[in-house]
Design a protein that fits this description.
alpha+beta; Elongation Factor Tu (Ef-tu), domain 3; Membrane-bound Lytic Murein Transglycosylase D, Chain A; 7-stranded antiparallel sheet; 4 helices; 11 strands
């Protein structure tokens, strides 16, 4: 029986992948120091339905917004993290460049920034998942100390991340199955738009609405691997 290493310090890691399914790892950024706090936001959108005269209002559920995550990471180039270890660590500038390369740079083939997966030990399991699949929304860098040559010695990174996963996975997690809520489907080999529409709504009658929602011609379907949105049936 294997026992956990009680002396091992799990470091927050941001992994980058080439695709939304997150199967092809393209790089990773390991925090120098674990954050003191993580701020995660959960939001729900409602449409207000006013009563006669505008005195009363009902909040009609529209959607659950993707969760967002804010985290602040510290970088130090003075060698404080290598006391007694010897050797040269990466500079603050190099570490910032590493993060920009995996999270901010636009890939020349996909024309997309990286698909990220934030992992930190057991964090996230309380929400029924491992870590946090996301994309970079904003990155702020505050330089706090400099060498005599102007190179940064310390910096604070403020990351704003927005949740990102395949439509199928998000809908499974949300537990949505009825035709009056939005659905997502990944196109498989041999799929046709009428057949996919029938599988969601029980009839191909709404194929035109599905085509409009995805900017498709009714006679064709998106390429294999693409994600299609199937809009809700009006109540």
């Amino acid at each position: 029986m294997a026992f956990p290493d009680l002396f091992k310090l799990e470091k927050l890691t941001i992994e980058a992948y080439a695709e939304r399914e997150r199967t092809t790892l393209t790089g990773a950024f390991v925090a120098m120091f674990n954050p003191a706090t993580l701020t995660q936001g959960f939001g729900i959108d409602y449409a207000g339905t006013a009563g006669v005269g505008g005195v009363a209002q009902q909040a009609r559920f529209v959607r659950r917004r993707p969760a967002d995550l804010s985290v602040t990471l510290l970088l130090d180039g003075t060698g404080v993290d290598r006391v007694g270890l010897g050797g040269r660590g990466r500079t603050v500038g190099e570490r910032i460049a590493d993060l920009l390369a995996i999270a901010y740079r636009i890939d020349g083939d996909t024309h997309e920034p990286g698909f990220l997966w934030v992992k930190w030990g057991e964090w996230g399991t309380e929400l029924g998942r491992t870590g946090y699949k996301c994309r970079l929304s904003n990155l702020g860098v505050t330089y706090q100390s400099f060498n005599r040559d102007g190179s940064p010695l310390r910096a604070e990174l403020q990351l704003a991340l927005v949740a990102d996963d395949t439509l199928d996975k998000q809908l499974r997690v949300a537990g949505l199955s009825s035709p009056d809520v939005p659905h997502g489907r990944v196109v498989r080999a041999g799929d046709t738009l009428p057949a996919m529409t029938r599988a969601v709504y029980g009839s191909p009658a709404r194929v035109a609405a599905v085509a409009r929602a995805n900017d498709l011609d009714q006679l064709r379907v998106a390429p294999v691997g693409a994600e299609l949105l199937f809009p809700p049936v009006a109540r």
